[in-house]
Model the fold of this input.
Amino acid sequence: MTTLQQDPLLTVMYSSTAVATFGEPELSALLAQARAANERNGLTGMLLFRDNRFFQTLEGTPDAVHEVMDRIRADDRHTDVHVLNQESIVERRFSDWTMGYVPLPAPREPLLPGVRNAFTDVQGSDDAVAALRAARELNLWFRVRANRTAGRRAAQAL
Ligand SMILES: Cc1cc2nc3c(=O)[nH]c(=O)nc-3n(C[C@H](O)[C@H](O)[C@H](O)COP(=O)(O)O)c2cc1C
Done:
């Protein structure tokens, strides 16, 4: 019998609050920096931004994920970094994105049918189960949206 040995992968999802107002130039610079570093470090994932708040999913080897999370926590462009979920995964969900980004619809528009507003829910919730569900919904929302609208590679553009 052959055993397929796979490198363990880790995914982390967190939310945070931008310290200064983040406009398109700041976001663009952040994405360029993150994508170049993630390419080097074998990291993939996606970033959402709304109302000066970030939601990010990162995935890669546990070492690479822990290292980038240390750097991200120390970054003074944002504060209030809350890890919503951290789990082992067998395969990447964002393998085509060194850091995918798609603009969010207007604040009051629901992200998914039946979901009031997952991005607000994920930020405001003290309930870990609700926050995890909202985080997973955001990941799903991103993949549906990025595939449907722009095509995978194009979705990287700001
Ligand atoms: C919201 C947010 C998301 C970030 N995402 C990443 C990322 O995916 N990968 C990365 O290497 N750096 C990311 N950074 C930047 C890091 O915090 C840090 O500035 C960068 O890794 C350079 O660190 P260094 O100056 O210690 O080398 C992010 C920063 C912020 C504020």
User: Anything to note?
Assistant: The radius of gyration is 15 Å. The pocket of flavin mononucleotide is lined by residues 16, 30, 33-34, 37-38, 54, 56, 58, 68, 71-72, 75, 77-78, 99 (CB under 6 Å). The mean pLDDT is 82. The chain has one domain: 9-156.
